[in-house]
Description:
The structure holds two protein chains of two kinds. Chain A is mainly β. Helices cover 10% and strands 44% of the residues of chain A. Chain A contains three helices and 22 strands. The longest helix of chain A is centred in the N-terminal third of the chain and has 39 residues. Chain A starts with a helix and ends with a strand. By secondary structure, chain B is mainly α. In chain B, 34% of the residues lie in helices and 0% in strands. The chains are: A mainly beta, B mainly alpha. Chains A and B meet through β1, β2, β5, β6 and β7 of A and α1 and α2 of B.
Amino acid sequence: MEENQAEGVVVINKEERMKKIIVLVALFIPFIGFSQTTTNEYKKRVLETAEVDIVTSFYSQDGDNASVTGGIGTEKLTDLATSFTVSIPLNDDDILSVDATISAYTSASSSNLDPFDVSGASGDDDDDDDDDDRSSNFTKSTATNVASPWVESSGASKGDVWKSLNISYSHSSDDRNTILGANASFASEYDYTSIGFGGSFAKLFNEKNTELSLKANIYLDSWSPAYPTELDSYLDDNQNLNDGHFEGIDILDQNGDIINKTGTTVWSPLKNKLIDETSRNTYSVSVSFSQILSKKSQLSLFFDLIQQDGWLGNPMQRVYFSDRDNYYVGNASSIPNYTSSSNDDVFQLADDIERLPNSRLKLPIGARFNQYINEKVTLRTYYRYYYDDWGINSHTVNIELPVKISDSFTFYPSYRYYTQTAADYFAPFEQHTSTEEFYTSDYDLSEFNANQFGVGFSYTDIFAKRHIWKLGLKSIDLKYDYYERNTGLNAGIISAGFKFVMD
Amino acid sequence: MIKKISFLLLLGSLSTSCVAVKEYEKVYINDPDMLLADKKSNRFVTSFQVYREAASGANGGKSGGGCGCN
Lengths: 503, 70
């Protein structure tokens, strides 16, 4: 009886076990089927063939608020930049991209780091301090005392070349719904070096109608500071106004009278230490969300969190205080006319370089919305709100209306409006006081609004029939943008982009 | 600020409730002009804006660092 009961229990246990196995197998069948489907499914390469993108631009600007000369002076600047980007498919899933960029500028404002005309400057930094004597690399015999914020100097700081190399790698999952990326970058210019690296993760779902991505980047940058020549020379020569740059040069007071350089009332900078930290680190996290809204419209949202630490001012930029006496080098009769662009022969000695907090938190949030209106016209829009803890709030609106003229040509006019409030630390020329902790007269941190108008054409040949060597030309973009802000600065930029695909 | 972020997040969450567009229906979405990013040829325009303006970021590209700009 007990044996029969035991057999019955065993049979029941076996049945239950079988049921469990059947249920488990049933549960896994869809996944087995799914995995078979995915492994047998044709997997399209993420990038079919190697691509080369070449972008070049010429930028030119002018204005009357040069930051190197304390918020007044010529802002003339030209910049020629070119980038080469090569994207190589390593296999079906992985892409390696290498981007090399070079940007060469000449700037009247930067040239006035040393406003006194210097020809034949050697550029050698043979003293024992730790700065770059780019501003004071003159010899006493070549230095003159004719200078003005409105006249471009011929010193070494009138031009520079910014070079950068960026390498990035991305891997897409078999179902193309997950993309992992990593990047590393290096950039340098005369007084600035940057090393950066980062990673990214993107996930597509909802039949690839929705994408969520996360990016993080770190930039470890450092200054090799170049200072306004009079400040640099004064500190290098032990505060002796009869040595170095100032030897044999008369210093004038506000009345145009020559001062006694060994007297009690003489020019001196506010501080005897210029920059005590050369690092500038940037940490950024970006989250973006993209959504297809319908067959003809889609939207994306961007949210960035950026923290910067270190020397966030620019050591080249002068500041003048209203509560300190003014001193000049040059023509005494031009002093009353100092802020006028007709002044071409007198220069005011700086009180200090700009000083800004060593921390800045930036929070930009943006949105793009694109609408395919019809086979000829597409509407592209962008909005960004920006906040930072230096007191700046800004709004950016951009609208672009690509119009297809033919199968190959598209005309795209664009308009952009930008507005920002001033940083808490901004004041114009001679309006700061020396009791303030932080100060700048950089008009890029002032309150202003700007309008930008653009026209562009693009040519597309999806079959890349035209060839240069083994590269088929896929598209050409040409664009001109005119930028004007209500501080008086205006700028124009011509850009050209070429896309090639490898045969 | 918080209201603006909440509004955008709400907009985002509402948009996910839309009916999914199938791959074969994405002919308009896949048009190059519909790309949810700046044109590559615009990179130096963005670059000069970063130099001349205090704001940067939230455009899918670089948001700071790498140059003596803002």
